Automatic annotation (TrEMBL):
Lineage: Eukaryota, Metazoa, Chordata, Craniata, Vertebrata
Domain TIR: start-end pairs: 799-940
Bilayer-crossing regions: 21-40, 749-772
GO molecular function, one term: signaling receptor activity
Gene Ontology CC: one annotated term: plasma membrane
Subcellular location(s) per record: Membrane
Membrane topology: Single-pass type I membrane protein
Record-given protein name: TIR domain-containing protein
GO BP: inflammatory response; innate immune response; signal transduction
Assigned keywords, A-Z: Glycoprotein, Immunity, Inflammatory response, Innate immunity, Leucine-rich repeat, Membrane, Receptor, Repeat, Signal, Transmembrane, Transmembrane helix
């Protein structure tokens, strides 16, 4: 046929040799472990962060994956940071070295951390920051050096920190302004500078810098500063300033030459500042055009005058006046503070507040009076009808009256925790129509007295935990139509009426842990009517069942939206079981925690009703036997906790079909062998925690040891500390120190056999390809012919053509010039030619097969080019299969050239056809072409009976 193709024979020998060697090298490489996995010796990886905290490390671990973006080395014993410590962590963004013994940082120790954004060196023993200590940290934005012993900084220490935005160097021993100058000259983008609790005695702008800084926050508190002078506009963007030291006995001189130097200052904290009233007045005048928030804690004298000065600033809206030992708030104290909207008077030992104390503060929206000695809600608050937040926590309030909050119609958050309110009243929260958060925890409450039956229509969060409630009666919360979260934990509740939470249609969370709830309590169906509940916490109660017999009425059957149920830590005498239908109705449950509940048995149908469960905690129970059937219904499980359950084997996992399990924790158990089948049954496993188990250190664990070290997918937590319990001479040793050579003899034999087999296979393939490739081509096309024949042999569609012409494109001139005019022009046959009749867009193989089976006969125009053509070979194979399968005379062979028999030897199918089938020869018809065309006409005209006399003997050999 006429398709373009390359018929050049390849240099088979050389190519085959190259491919063989390459394949052999690839195979041998595959037998060698590529790299270790990430079961780390001293750390674990979580959320792409290496966690190595509190491991008594003295050096930085070197087996950390290079892909981590976080590295927590806090609370160790590292004393020196060396240049080789962080060589390969080029994508690390957060490094935490808090609370070590670091006293020295080598030059360029962090130079390879080119992506680092945050570096924490708090609570170490640094005395001096040496030359180029932070070299290479050009992307660092946050540096914390507080709580060291730093007295000096090298000139080049900070020169790379050009993008630093926050520097905390508080609680050190910096004394001079020159140290601050060294920092600021190299950190042009610094926005927050924390220098509190050093030993600075002066702060003078000309010693700091000669340019404008980008600083927005500056903390100089707890420094014994005696002289604060700003003589140039170096803080044009400063919005927050903290200065003052409550332990200082010497006054500070404030000298800011121009009021515009601090024109952006919005927040000022001068707590503990020891200065004269005149100096304070000068200070406040400097910032009286922009100040919004003023903090005056720990002021030792002139409180009234200071309040007058503060409130005279028209822009001040937030005033904090804590820890000033006020005791009594008189009516004139805050009279000038007409613009204040947020007032904090906490920790002042206040016992009484004059009824008119806040008369002038009608715009007040936030009032904090926590940690005082108030015995009742002060009447002074009733006039504050614009309050949105009121904090009266940690006082001595014992009763709430109907008038205490009756005028607070705009209050959204009320804090009354840690008082002594034994009982509530029905009208206690009257008027709080906008309240959203109410905190009443730890207030000694024993009875709610209907306080929540009618009031608080918009309450979303109610905190009643830590009180002395014993019962929740039906309708107790029926007025809380908007409630989302109800905290009742740490009470003494042992009675829950049927439907006691009914009507709370928006309730999603109930905390009932640490009460006296028993099985009998749950029988009342207290959760009936709570249709939106998603999280229910019943841990640390007294819920106990004695057998797995199905319950008549299940406790959670109404909670169809519940996603999390916690029952861990049940306190009761004796062992317990879970009824087989205990979780009935919880179709949407995602998390179930029954840790430490003294369970001894779980029925195989326990989780039939929870098919969507993703997290299951069964730890600290006596479940010695677990079966695959138990886990079969929860195929979506992702996290499983089975620590301290005394199981002797993990074989139950092999048949549990937990294909999505990612996290498995099984500490403190009694299994000693982890087989390949167990691990391979968990294809999604990412994290495995078998701490505090002991293992057989023999060949039964050889696969597990090797997998632990080299797994690229699963992290085995603390694997390098796994200990041995068998045999006796290995006791006390580590599992990963076990020498696997004794177990590798069989493996080596397998490797040898497989390698040898592969080499022989490659050599045989090379030999066959080099000497028998044409036979291979023949076999290939033979198979394709059979395949196409099988596909089309049963089709009985009528023939569309009289003959399909199969030819090579090099013979196209003869087909077009000789064959086509005779057969179609003179004799009237309908022929199929590929260039004219093949359907565009259809695959070539389908066009060929359709043409052969859609024609009565196939005429093969054979030449040397034809025999070498891939597509022509496919055509003749398909046609010959049709011939042999249908037993019909469908094939006509026309030779354009005299081809010697030896050239046909690679084409066995063609040789067989010539032995059984007559053929026409164009070269032999040179003297009598009319005979050739007549014989071809008769061949096309003959029927399909294979027994019909063949009349082509004129051209037979």
């Amino acid at each position: 046929m006429g398709l373009e193709e390359d018929t050049t024979k390849p240099n088979a020998g050389s190519k085959c040799s190259d491919h063989s060697i390459a394949f052999l090298l690839i195979y041998m490489i595959c037998l060698v472990p590529l790299a270790t996995g990430f079961s780390l010796k001293s750390c674990r990886v979580s959320l792409n962060a290496a966690i190595c905290t509190d491991r008594q490390l003295k050096v930085v671990p070197q087996d950390i994956p290079t892909t981590v973006t976080g590295f927590d080395l806090s609370k160790n014993q590292i004393s020196r940071i060396q240049r080789s410590n962080f060589t390969n962590l080029t994508v690390l963004e957060d490094l935490n070295l808090h609370e070590n013994h670091i006293s020295k940082i080598d030059s360029g120790a962090f130079a390879n951390l080119i992506s680092l954004r945050k570096l924490t060196l708090n609570n170490n023993k640094l005395v001096k920051i040496g030359e180029l200590a932070f070299d290479g940290l050009g992307n660092l934005t946050e540096l914390r050096l507080n709580t060291n012993k730093i007295t000096a900084l090298s000139p080049t220490a900070f020169q790379s920190l050009t993008r630093l935005k926050l520097l905390d160097i508080s609680q050190n021993k910096l004394e001079t302004m020159s140290n601050l100058h060294l920092i600021l000259q190299h950190t042009p983008q610094l926005q927050e500078f924390v220098i509190r609790t050093n030993v600075l005695r002066t702060f003078q702008s000309w010693k700091l810098t000669n340019r404008s800084l980008d600083l927005q926050a500056l903390d100089l508190s707890h420094n014994p500063i005696r002289d604060f002078r700003v003589t140039a506009n170096i803080f044009p963007n400063l919005t927050r300033l903290i200065i003052g030291d409550k332990f200082s006995v010497l006054p500070m001189k404030w000298d800011v030459k121009n009021k515009t130097f601090l024109r952006q200052l919005a927040s000022l904290d001068v707590s503990g500042l020891h200065t004269s009233l005149e100096n304070m007045e000068a200070l406040l005048k400097t910032v009286n055009s922009s100040l919004r928030s003023l903090t005056l804690n720990h002021i030792k004298r002139s409180r009234t005058q200071l309040i007058n000065l503060s409130c005279s600033i028209p822009t001040v809206s937030k005033l904090q006046f804590r820890s000033n030992d006020l005791r009594t708030i008189s009516s004139y104290f805050f009279k000038p503070c007409v613009n204040v909207v947020e007032l904090d008077l906490s920790e002042n030992h206040i016992k009484s507040i004059d009824e008119n104390a806040f008369t002038s503060m009608r715009n007040l929206t936030i009032l904090r009076l926590s940690k005082n000695k108030l015995s009742s809600v002060p009447n002074a608050t009733r006039i504050l009808q614009n309050l949105s937040q009121l904090d009266l926590s940690n006082n001595m309030i014992s009763t709430l009256t109907c008038q205490d909050f009756s005028t607070q119609t705009r209050l959204k958050e009320l804090s009354l925790q840690n008082n002594s309110i034994f009982t509530l009243t029905e009208c206690a929260f009257k008027g709080l129509v906008q309240l959203q958060i109410l905190r009443l925890q730890s207030s000694q409450i024993t009875d709610l007295k209907g306080a929540f039956k009618t009031s608080l229509p918009k309450l979303k969060r109610l905190h009643l935990n830590g009180n002395k409630l014993t019962a929740i009666r039906k309708g107790e919360f029926e007025g809380l139509k908007s409630l989302w979260n109800l905290s009742l934990h740490q009470n003494q509740i042992n009675i829950l009426d049927t439907g006691c939470f009914a009507g709370l249609l928006n309730l999603t969370d109930i905390q009932l842990q640490s009460n006296g709830i028993t099985t009998r309590t749950l029988k009342t169906r207290p959760f009936k009517g709570v249709s939106s509940l998603k999280r229910l916490y019943l841990n640390d109660n007294h819920i106990q069942y004695f057998n797995i017999t199905p319950l008549r009425e299940t406790p959670f059957s109404d909670l169809h939206q519940l996603e999390e149920l916690s029952l861990h830590g049940q306190h009761h005498r004796g062992k317990s079981s879970l009824p087989s239908n205990f979780l009935q109705g919880l179709y949407r449950l995602l998390s179930f925690n029954v840790r430490n509940s003294q369970l001894i048995n779980l029925d195989k149908d326990t989780f039939v009703n929870t098919p969507n469960l993703e997290r299951l905690d069964l730890s600290s129970n006596d479940l010695e036997i677990l079966t695959p059937e138990l886990f079969a219904p929860i195929r979506n499980l992702k996290s499983l906790y089975i620590s301290r359950i005394a199981v002797h084997s993990l074989d139950f996992l092999t048949g549990a079909n937990l294909t999505r399990l990612e996290f498995l924790q099984g500490r403190h158990n009694q299994y000693s062998v982890i087989t390949k089948d167990i691990i391979e049954s968990l294809p999604s496993l990412r994290y495995l925690d078998f701490k505090y188990n002991s293992f057989y250190c023999d060949c039964s664990n050889a696969w597990f040891v090797n997998w632990t070290i080299f797994s690229k997918q699963t992290q085995v937590n603390d694997a390098y500390n796994f200990s041995c319990n068998y045999p006796d001479d290995f006791k006390g040793k580590r599992l990963l120190d076990f020498d696997l050579k004794s177990c590798s003899q069989d493996i080596n034999l397998i490797y040898f056999a497989s390698t040898t087999s592969m080499i022989l296979f490659v050599m045989a393939g090379s030999f066959i390809y080099h000497f028998m490739r044409w036979q291979l081509y023949y076999a290939y096309y033979l198979f394709l012919g059979w395949l196409f024949d099988s596909k089309y042999k049963n089709k009985q569609a009528p023939h569309q053509y009289d003959a399909f012409i199969s030819y090579n494109h090099h013979d196209e001139p003869w087909v077009i010039g000789e064959l086509l005019p005779k057969l179609e022009g003179e004799q009237g046959w309908k022929l199929c030619l590929h260039h004219r009749d093949f359907e565009p867009g259809k695959p070539i193989t389908e066009n060929i097969t359709d043409a052969i089976y859609g024609s009565r006969k196939t005429i093969c125009v054979i030449s040397r080019r034809y025999l070498e053509s891939e597509w022509c070979s496919r055509e003749v194979q398909t046609a010959s299969f049709r011939l042999f399968d249908e037993q019909k005379d469908v094939l006509i062979l026309v030779f354009l050239e005299d081809i010697p028999t030896y050239l046909l030897s690679p084409f066995q199918r063609m040789r067989k056809l010539l032995k059984k089938q007559t053929y026409l020869s164009w070269p032999r018809a040179a003297g009598h072409p009319e005979v050739f065309w007549e014989n071809l006409r008769k061949a096309l005209q003959t029927g399909n009976d294979p027994n019909e006399e063949n009349f082509l003997s004129l051209t037979q050999e």
